[in-house]
What does this fold into?
Amino acid sequence: MTDDAFQALTVETLPRRLGAVAAVAEKVGGAPQGWKVREVGDGNLNLVFIVEGETGSLVIKQALPYVRLVGDSWPLPLKRSFFEYHALTRQEARAPGAVPKVFHFDEAQALIAMEYLSPHIILRRALIQGQELPRIARDLGLFMARTLFRGSDLCMKARERKADLALFADNVELCDITENLVFTDPYFGAPMNRHTPQLDPLVAELRADRDLRVEAQRMKHLFAANAETLVHGDLHTGSVMVTAQDTRVIDPEFAFYGPMAFDVGMLLANFWMAFFAQRGHETGGSRAGMRAYLLNVIEETWRVFREEFSALWRTERTGMLYHRSLYEEQNDTLGAEQALGHVLHGVWEDMLGFAGVEIHRRILGLAHNADFEDIEDVALRAQCEAAALRFGRHIAVNRRHVTSLGEINQLAQLLDEGRGAPAGRLS
Amino acid sequence: MTDDAFQALTVETLPRRLGAVAAVAEKVGGAPQGWKVREVGDGNLNLVFIVEGETGSLVIKQALPYVRLVGDSWPLPLKRSFFEYHALTRQEARAPGAVPKVFHFDEAQALIAMEYLSPHIILRRALIQGQELPRIARDLGLFMARTLFRGSDLCMKARERKADLALFADNVELCDITENLVFTDPYFGAPMNRHTPQLDPLVAELRADRDLRVEAQRMKHLFAANAETLVHGDLHTGSVMVTAQDTRVIDPEFAFYGPMAFDVGMLLANFWMAFFAQRGHETGGSRAGMRAYLLNVIEETWRVFREEFSALWRTERTGMLYHRSLYEEQNDTLGAEQALGHVLHGVWEDMLGFAGVEIHRRILGLAHNADFEDIEDVALRAQCEAAALRFGRHIAVNRRHVTSLGEINQLAQLLDEGRGAPAGRLS
It folds into this structure.
């Protein structure tokens, strides 16, 4: 074993091992043996330490060679830390301030030293608690527009995008997780699936639904084949940390070159799930206001995304696609706007498909959401989940025949009020 | 300079330099100094030698570090030989017998020793001469279905496809040629463009055509972003060698991971151009029969492609997309057929877009086709080209509203007979 061989950090060994790293020692301050270290990882794949010292603090995130949720029976390569590091640096360059600052990266130890965000909490947790955060729609709409536009051939040099595409093409194992757990397993009785028992009849109905199974696989085809831009790859509300004043996107280890609509669809799906889960969290009083807030967040996120994407299209379209030599330089600004409309319409249609599939996998697959899981009354949870499942099916299958979020959100309200389901389908 | 440093072969140096390579010496036979060597390259990018000896023969193809057509002012990396070699081996594995056998590859010298195809001629030349080759539709339909299906996530292991995607992502310079010369330059007054002078009014009309400029760039977007399968990348009638009994696809140095529809669209476009060029080659008599033959070849090529693709879908769908666990294993064969229909419909729509753009670039851009170039009467040539240009515009812009090749071929006939153009547009 060389000095470089991977070793998982512990609260005890961390100060000694990282005290010698200048970037870490300077940021934390004081003698390493005096550092206060806590392990706070609650994810599935990694160790996360908060390190506090005399003058500062940071987070150490270290990948483990297996999926923590399942134990060492499911190995997962350490190189995902490499992809997370490279994604973070690109996201920071493309959407400054939207991700944690990175202080240090050690590839062999699969660890990243990054900014400790405090008093931030996970967005999913805030939404479950009923917090109406004022900035998330704007901040996340901007984040998506900036990273997705600037990582594509709309903006980058073709050579650089192709080199980056090749680099991230090696993130095979994490793509494989998405490919199987999101797009395939939920639609048949795969071994690791689970769902709330009361959903049995609806689950059987969905798994027998041919149009849905075809559409889910078409989304998988797009996910696997369309290497349009560097996507975050796991952009749900558990990958966002918030305060009322600040929004940060974390955990991009699933990053790869994929379709723009994937990030957008996954994020909006998680907002919709937060919406459908609210009825399960009304022990402290009605969540009607929170529901209205969430539907508004969905509309605003999409509007901000569209507006920023359009602004970038008009000012930073420096890549090889839809080049200005064909439009603006021919005095045809309208041609560029027409093309923009086509591109955004494509993102719209595909976003709905990815959103529908994301909702299904969170209720039928392996990795569930706290939004629903925290509802202790299982009959009530099943009601919330059933409405979300029906909603997901509708938007995935009908995505080409939906014109506005207003229309879809009305459907969401209808289903949430129990008016969209066949009578007696769920107890 | 090391022994490995690239040196262009000559007729004189070839026997000495390749006589020591066992695979070459064995195939050719006899003493190298007795080999008969001819340089026959008529392409733009490479040296091509035919080597004949006592017991056999072969072709040596060597890349040059610049575009031969333009001279050394346009450098082009030797590594394209590496991509050609890797594409040839994959094509042979996926469509056995469809490409020349490879005997030897030398990466540093950028040379491939391969089967000498004789008495084969270039398909484009045969079609200009009016030869009705009986096998091309079937052979090329099968070649496309087999290589495009078997190189995608419909068939390959995801890990292997992603590794291969990364390998071919480095073929930047040749992709760049296609990206600029095919999709962008023809649609504005780019410096290297040229066209038959009589076309001036029509060219101005096409370059002012907003819908066309938008659609051409949408095709470019798809070309650049959709890494669906390993495409040949330059599958026109100049990349096919034929006899009445045999069809071989050559020159895959443009190979990369792109959309299936790109190869299909480029090939059919070149058949359509062969069709529109026939009126320029009637000095030896009417080409009415040849025109009917070519339209039939187009329909048959597409039909064979569809049939073979469908057969592979039913028997070799071993990749991660549209997995049998969701369809056949749920006793839902119809679901798999429904998905197949969607995939083929997508190829259909995109194929028409790529075909339209390919026709335009061959008449308006840098690299023209002998089909038209060989027509000495420039007024007649312009008439042929004008019909093709109008046809290309129609199929590219209306590709979502066309249902059959019968319908399009009828339009091609109408335009060819001079009935589709506004009166007086062309002299």
Summary: The mean pLDDT of chain B is 94. Chain B has two domains: 14-114, 121-416. The domain at 14-114 of chain B is CATH 3.30.200.20 (Phosphorylase Kinase; domain 1). The two ends of chain B are 59 Å apart (CA to CA).
